[in-house]
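Methods — Computational structure assignment.
A single polypeptide chain was analysed. Its primary sequence is given first, followed by the predicted tertiary structure written as structure tokens.
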Amino acid sequence: MYIGNDVSIGSALGRLFKLSRLSVATESAQVDGGQPDRRLVEAPLTQDQSFQVWIEPISEKAKRQTLLKKRQLNDESLLIGRRGSIAELQPGDKDAYLISQMEPYTVSKRHCQLEVREDGVWLQDLDSRFGTYVDGTVLGGKSGQKEICLEPGEHELIPGPERSNFRFKITVEAA
């Protein structure tokens, strides 16, 4: 039985996000022979899992932009969007991965957000005009789905339409 998780943050090189899953022993009053039934749930009592998250350009157009290099997520969240004036960032936007794009724009200024929460690593579309694609799944727009939890492994991110020239790899690793 899964009953909760704790999050602790910290690392000299960046942030490690630690998720602890707990399981409990179950005990029923009696079974057929009148003896109490005591069983441990199959999961171990505590299971710690830490994640490291990176984003890097994989399309040639994105690789040519000098500010779009491979980066480790150093905060709880990372805004991904189109470069504009710094005044357009909101106070809660601690860190941003901004794409330089000429008209016609396909990437919104506040397009999507990568976020580590208590229950995992999430990517959320921020009501962008053309939606966000993650491993072929569309977020936002008419899809009705706004966010997706990213399992450990590599994921392809396309902010904007599926035909976009801006493609990124998000790597989620269990540490």
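Note: DSSP finds one helix and 15 strands in the chain.
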